[in-house]
Queue: 2 jobs
Job 1
Amino acid sequence: MPQKNVIELRGANVYHSLIAGHRLTRRNYRRTGERVLSDVDLAIAPGETVYLIGRVGSGKSTLLKTLYAEVPLFEGIGRVAGMDLTTLRRRDVARLRRRLGIVFQDYRLLTDRNVVENLRFVLRATGWRNNGDMLRRIEEVLDQVGLRNKEYKMPFELSGGEQQRLAIARALLNRPAAILADEPTGNLDPEAADGVMRLFADIARRGCAVVMSTHNVANIQQYPSRTIRFNKGGVEELDIKTIFG
């Protein structure tokens, strides 16, 4: 039996708020929001890698925020990791995010804690209680991202590539169905970016979907996969083999 899609959008219209810091609601989204994307159809299966490309402001980050419920979805159909985005209550957002891993361009690490304590903080916040279980899981994800020998380093002692690997380790802690990565190589030099891309490829091979916004065409050429272009309020899938040969 084929596996269900991890992410599925059908006829989705995506809005963002015109007021900084204001969260849209079903009552006010047409009045205080702006439609960014129209009629989005997107299905992503376990283990797929999907790139999101397009100009700044074309809606890539807003779509990622919609997938992890930072931006609510009011129009169309949207399901992520088995949860319905259109009926999701505020108190259910944390449960959705425990099923996802989120990776940002700027790492967003706790600068006053070492590698292990950055990861332990997330485990405690998501309901883990047994210290032995937490330590074993921390060791597993550090092995996976190649940071096992950096356990007690502070973030400022790590290179940019190592900090992003730590951010990816954090995203993997709860065995997510999908990783959503917003420009994860944007602050990295080419060598570090290549290492991060190889890591994402390994994560996808293990069955976790990877959805990544990027401006780095070289990465797509080196690690080709499904690519969605954002343009003029819509999305379209590109034939990468035809474009790059």
Note: Residues 47-71+90-244 form a domain with the Rossmann fold fold (CATH 3.40.50.300).
Job 2
Amino acid sequence: MKKWKIMPALVLAVCMFVTLFGGNATTEAMTKVEPASYGTISDFSSIEENLTALQFTKTKKKIKAGKTYKFKVNKTGVTWSVSNKKLAKISKKGVFTAKKCGSVKVSAALGTEKVTFKVKITPKAVIGIDPGHQKSANTGTEPVGPGSSTMKTKVAGGTYGNSSGLKEYELTLQVSLKLKKELENRGYKVVMTRESHDVNITNKERAEKLNESCDIAIRIHADGAGSSSARGATALYPSSSNPYVGNLSAKSKTLSECVLGRYCESTGIKYRGLSARDDLTGTNWSTIPVTLIELGFMTNPSEDVYMANSANQETMAEGIANGVDDYFKK
């Protein structure tokens, strides 16, 4: 009996539910349920990217001049930039090219976000330049090489231009300063033995200064002769039998070949060739590959006038720098 009394009440409740909410609506709601949309993997990646702060995912603290490196961040569509375009450049894809030595900041920006990373550009090599002579000669003497009893003048006076009136110590510094600038623009670090005329630095001291941190030494000089017809450029290097630096002969000869060849190619000055010399104090005290280039004859009117011209000196410096490039490519 109790069972039959409960059933009518249940039926009545169902009827009231249908009446209140509508049979059609209920059926429609039950038969037209849409499946949930969970999105694609790329949709979730995009959401995650937007929620994550912009940051570098690939960096490098030191990059050698002339080399490239691709920086990366965790987001796409960023704008890349560098703080000093003279030192480096960076492409739209984040490829960084190191140009000159120094420190530069690499930045990636997206909307209001920006991240920065500091990079040190290291030199291709360290080049020592010795502008021959100085304003006043030093007639004191010093050993021609380590342990030698043979003594030579510490710094000779040098020659001068018969037509230009330019002194050798003036010409060598003018060309050396231009060479310094050219080499630095190519990514090298340069050490000078002097940057003014009024100094007193012996040939031994010049070699020792460059030995401290340089990879090669370039000694800049000019020739002189009793005859005004003598002309051309020469490069001097130590022979293999040099009692002080014979071990540097091969590399010094290669350096001399590179520098003199490209110098004469650029300037049109006559190529006189290489000369092995073991009596040069500034060479014999060197512990690194070394060359001494005689730029031309200041006693030759034509070469003297050519070398005294500032624009021509730029060409002379470029030629020597080309030779340095060639040497380090070997």
Note: The chain has two domains: 52-122, 126-329.
